[in-house]
Amino acid sequence: MALALTPHLVVAASDHTESVRLALARARRGYLEDPAGALAEGIRCNEVARLAGNPALCARALALQGVVSLHRADLRGALALAVEADRLLESSDDITARTEVAALKAQLSFFTGSYSEALSHAELSVELADISDDAGLRIYARRATCLVFGNVGVPDWRDRLDELLGLAIGLGDRWEEAISRNDLACYLQEVGDLEEAEREIERALDVAHGVPSGNTFALAVVHSTRADIRLAAGRPQEALADAERSISLLLRNAEPNPYVLGVTVRAEVQARMALGHFDDAQRAGEGALTWLGERLPQTRSLILSTLASALREAGRIEQAYDALARAAELERRAFRELSELQLSLKRVTLEVSAARHETESLAAKNRQLAEAHTELERRTRQLEGLQEQLRDQADRDWLTGLYNRRYLAREIERLTKERFTRRMSLAVLDLDHFKSINDRFGHDAGDQVLVRVAQLLRDLLGDTDIVVRSGGEEFLFLMPLTDTHAATVRCERIRQAIHDAEWDAIADGLTVTTSIGLGSTQDPGDLVALIRLADQRLYEAKHAGRDRVVGPPR
User: Fold this and answer.
1) Which residue of 47, 223, 353, 547 shows the fewest CB atoms closer than 10 Å?
2) What is the rounded CA–CA span in Å between residue 209 and residue 450?
3) What are the residue ranges spanned by the domains of the chain?
4) What does 514-554 look like in DSSP terms, one character per residue?
5) At what angle do helices 527-543 and 405-417 cross, to 10 degrees?
6) What are the tens digits of pLDDT across the range 56-69?
7) Architecture in CATH of 156-280
8) How, if at all, do strands 549-550 and 514-521 pair?
């Protein structure tokens, strides 16, 4: 809301231009540690500058509000502020204002996926800052554009980091030195020099602790980076401590930076998974998703993708599949949102600059969007392929490779819906005295028995039959288009094959027999009852002495 100024304050506004400049410089320097205070200062300075008729100072105040909006992940708000600031600079040569607006546009272009434009604005911001003799402005331009240069992958990135660190040390700015050392540690980790990365992040932490005031965000960033480095070094317990410390520091702010929080939660999830704390990891990821709400689909997708990978490695295939499916949907949503923002940013930029080649520029942008859309489709196909793999894994028993009850339930539902009218049979097979096999010969031998039985079932059952491991030593097979007589013959062949198999190859003295319960029906709605009937006949086979097939009375 605009501030109401009395007439004497309007006169005073023109007399206090220098104080507004100083206030903006202080707020610019500290907005990452105190975003709410910087935003309030930006609003106040904009009102004073507007009443004083100073468009350059207005543009600077708007640029300050814009970077705070980006810090809070409000891309649309930042876009509106950047557009207004750009308009105010149409006829201004103010170096500081143009540097700060270019830095804002560089970050905004990066977050909306316009990387070539982000690089162009970032280079312009640094070039303009170097024209001035303001060391603080030179540091700010480089700090604000680190996001762009670091992620786009410029060839002289290490040199830029060393230059920024040197400027920070030369100015005696310990906050900037801590963050610069943090960025250098990130670079060293990326190039695989973990030992030096750890040394540099420890220097960053020491310097951050030495900042006299306003160091909470800096400490959070450094601890987040150290968590990633310790994960890469194979020390998940230490990484978890750093991630928890970073999150605690970030949450001290009423509106923590969601980007830093997102990557830190990812590190927390990875650390907990590496320690085997799967439920805690899932709760941490889901908690972060709840906190983010509808914001930042890309960050939420990153967390979900991390969860999916970790759950898959832990063997929790169904949960991994669910997380991956949600991540894919968020990727699609992020692409749509960023495409809209890209076009909005390009249109207003063209309007402000009155570009003579507007049609060609829009065509180029449309080509970029088409390429981005093609890339999204490629990634979507990859995700769908991985989802299909996860779906198949979720439908199969991990040991034997047979289908599981989840798959069988879906097939029964399908057959029921299709109103299958031909006779079908279903058998339940249970290995006799399997617990004694495990007790006498060991669980490894027991696993080998299960795998061998599964292979015999695959060999002896027909192509249209569905065989599943329903749990433990129990197997279930559904035989569509098979009447009672044919099913009985098939079950007897299976029983005999298991009885006659060469089990000595697994362990000396090992013998394996099986009991089978069989039922048949012609009613597709009676399949659940058919399973219960087969279970009952299996029970009868066990009590009749085992190693036999019990089916319908002849």
Assistant:
1) 353
2) 59
3) 156-280, 405-550
4) EEEEEEEES-GGGHHHHHHHHHHHHHHHHHTTSSSEE-S--
5) 130
6) 999 999 999 999 98
7) Alpha Horseshoe (1.25)
8) parallel
